[in-house]
From TrEMBL:
The keyword Nucleotide-binding applies. It catalyses: Couples ATP hydrolysis with the unwinding of duplex DNA by translocating in the 3'-5' direction; ATP + H2O = ADP + phosphate + H(+). This is ATP-dependent DNA helicase Rep. It is an enzyme of class 5 (isomerase). Its EC number is 5.6.2.4. Homodimer. The lineage of its organism: Bacteria, Pseudomonadati, Pseudomonadota, Gammaproteobacteria, Lysobacterales. It comes from Luteimonas padinae. Residues 278-551 form the UvrD-like helicase C-terminal domain.
């Protein structure tokens, strides 16, 4: 597979900033991989001075594997391939002192943050709390410090938000903790204000490559700029038609801002799509042409036309799921296709339920990304809270979770009182319980329970120094009482086996993590793993959301729920964000290499009532010549039916014979 001339130009341009702006499947990610190989191979940069930024941990892993295949031996050693957040975390771990943090600092997940906001806004409704949290997060992603936010505030709500931001940040500092947004904001602030530090990092990272650049937010773009410096030794690749994270603060404008910030920016466009069948590509082109464009980039493909896109109208979601499952089983048997070559995409996670049921019924093996939310499991969160507390005595949020997992007869009133006493004494809660004088002010039963807890924590802290992290997790699960509580909680042995499995998986993960890192650092990097990244799918049909499918490709792709309530999502319609929904479908369609199915239910159940659905408005934007609708071609339908029946019988015969 040789590179085309434009790709070659992108790979060999090594001095100064480069932006590759191109549509789906045109080889942008491939350019990044080849470029890393080129930079290392030509001796311009050793691998340890190169950092490639990807959008998810999953794509980071994939890129690492692709690079390992391209570069032989240990020449790739020390290469950084990570997400913006993981890079920010590493920077903070190295620069913790400059950033005002102590070793072992914690990362607050959004639940931890919400709890803080709730506390700072007593009596406020959940909606108001969520809105405030969003506002503060937006300020952080715009790279503002609390002081800057205050200076910029114009209205009363803005003043209020700036004030809450300041209080929230003070809490984080007291807990020796950062939140996800800080993982980018703090490194940016460091690099922008500390010239010496910036210089050191530019020395450390000589060349930067950023994939999926259209989905970076302002703070991430600033991190890129601060790391790349004025010379701008970077390669960014992106596609404004695939910007699907505006709701999370992504700003595709950064792509044009880049041209203003770097007058020397070289822009390379790629126009050949290597991924999709021609029909799929023509459909995708036609769809996205409905969005406003400065420059419409039309992709072409030398691939075969392929089969027409099937459009299915189904009775309801259950019927839709059954048809999809049956079709997959049919294609798998008839064309000898591996399960892992199929992918089913949906707009919202709840849509996977009907699919799972249908796939289970037909015994089709599948892997659901995101849905299992390993890190959201109560027992895993409990164990992580324990680890956080052991590594960071200042982390009150972790303390509060751990002291109640399992419950030890310490009620909310006592905990509130303890919080107050420790605040007055100027120490974190996990230290306050070491003080006999302080405990005396609590009810005797609770005090004795807390003092027992303090002994337990002291003992485990000693183990934490001694034991390898994975071993620590195992010891912790036993001694903390987490396992025993889990056993008592589970109604069946089977249930206990599954949930205990989650804890084992956590220990395994620590086993596999890079050597030398302490439990605190590991807990921090684990907090960064998005759910979609956990668990290795085998030879299984993939189920995932359209958002999670970005950058991936599959031979056979099904997109379900292409109705006018789901895609475009009704909330987006109300808020006038149709263009982003169209991009989302564009991303979905362009995942397909060989064949694509689009389906929608005629009705759905909502709050116990039947709701009539109409096909998505986007279906009307696809060229009719590329589609094959249900019932539109009776002859073809009949032929397929017969073929399917034959294969069906063959499958049953095979089953009976085996
Ligand atoms: N010059 C080439 N010759 C043959 N195949 C290629 C070439 N360039 C890329 N490909 C293949 O095309 C497919 C799409 O490439 P890649 O994933 O890099 O595209 P992309 O632009 O990153 O897509 P997306 O926008 O979806 O992220 C891959 O299977 C890749 O191996
Ligand atoms: Mg890509």
């Amino acid at each position: 597979m040789s590179l085309n001339p434009q790709q070659q130009a992108a790979v060999s341009h090594c001095e100064g900033p480069l932006l590759v702006l191109a549509g789906a499947g045109s080889g942008k990610t491939r350019v990044i991989v080849e470029k890393i190989a080129h930079l290392v191979g030509s001796g311009r940069y050793p691998a340890k001075r190169i950092a490639a930024i990807t959008f998810t941990n999953k794509s980071a892993k994939e890129m690492r594997e692709r690079v390992a295949k391209r570069i032989r031996g240990d020449a790739a050693e020390g290469l950084t391939v990570s997400t913006f957040h993981a890079l920010g975390l590493r920077m903070l771990q190295i620069e913790h002192e400059r950033a005002g943090l102590r070793r072992g600092f914690s990362i607050f997940d959004s639940d931890d943050s919400t709890a803080q906001f709730r506390d700072l806004m007593p009596g406020a409704k959940p909606d108001a709390i969520q809105a405030m949290q969003g506002l503060v997060s937006r300020a952080k992603n715009a790279g503002l410090s609390p002081e800057q936010a205050r200076a910029l505030a114009r209205s009363t709500p803005e003043h209020e938000a700036a004030m809450i931001y300041e209080l929230y940040q003070a809490r984080l500092a007291a807990f020796n903790a950062v939140d996800f947004d800080d993982l980018i904001r703090l490194p940016v602030q460091l690099l922008e204000t500390d010239a010496e530090c910036a210089l050191a990092w530019r020395e450390r990272i000589g060349y930067l490559l950023v994939d999926e650049c259209q989905d970076s937010n302002d703070a991430q773009y600033r991190l890129l700029k601060a790391l790349a410096g004025e010379k701008g030794n970077f390669t960014a690749v992106g596609d404004d038609d695939q910007s699907i994270y505006a709701w999370r603060g992504a700003n595709p404008e950064n792509l044009s801002q880049m041209a203003r910030d770097y007058p020397a920016l070289k822009v390379v466009k790629l126009e050949q799509n290597y991924r999709c069948s021609n029909r799929v590509l023509r459909a995708a082109n036609a769809l996205i042409a409905n969005n406003p464009h400065e420059h419409l980039k039309t992709l072409w493909s030398a691939n075969a036309d392929g089969e027409r896109i099937r459009v299915w109208e189904c009775r309801d979601a259950a019927h839709e799921a059954e048809r999809v499952a049956a079709e997959i089983q049919f294609v798998n048997a008839a064309r000898k296709v591996e399960w892992s070559e199929f992918c089913i995409l949906f707009r919202s996670n709840h849509q996977s339920r009907a699919l799972e049921k249908a796939l289970q019924m037909l015994r089709v093996p599948y892997h659901l990304s995101g849905g299992t939310a390993f890190l959201d499991r109560g027992e895993v969160k409990d164990a992580l809270a324990w680890l956080r507390m052991l590594a960071n005595p200042d982390d009150d949020a972790a303390f509060l979770r751990a002291v109640q997992a399992p419950g030890r007869g310490v009620g909310q009133t006592t905990l509130a009182k303890l919080a107050e006493l420790s605040r007055n004494a100027g120490m974190p809660m996990s230290r306050a319980i070491e003080s006999v004088g302080l405990l005396k002010q609590l009810a005797p039963r609770a005090a004795s329970s807390l003092s027992g807890f303090a002994d337990l924590v002291r003992g485990l802290r000693a183990e934490a120094v001694r034991l390898p992290p994975a071993e620590l997790v195992r010891v912790l699960n036993e001694r903390s009482g987490l396992l025993a509580a889990l056993r008592a909680q589970c109604k069946t042995e089977e249930m206990f086996r599954i949930r205990r499995g989650n804890l084992d998986e956590l220990a395994d993960w620590f086993d596999g993590a890079r050597g030398g890192a302490g439990p605190g650092e590991l807990a921090a990097s684990l907090a960064l793993l998005s759910h979609a990244d956990k668990g290795e799918p085998g030879n299984q049909v993939r189920l995932m959301s359209l958002h999670a499918a970005k950058g991936l490709e599959f031979r056979y792709v099904f997109i379900i729920g292409v109705d006018d309530d789901t895609l475009p999502h009704e909330a987006s319609v109300e808020e006038g964000r149709i263009d982003e929904e169209r991009r989302l479908l564009y991303v979905g369609i362009t995942r397909a290499k060989e064949q694509l199915w689009l389906s929608y239910p005629r009705e759905s159940q909502r709050w116990g009532e039947r709701l009539k659905l109409v096909p998505s408005r986007f279906l009307a934007e696809l060229p009719a010549a590329e589609l094959q609708r249900d019932g539109a071609d009776p002859v073809a339908d009949a032929a397929r039916k017969k073929e399917r029946a034959d294969v069906g019988f063959a499958a049953i015969r095979a089953m009976l014979e085996s």
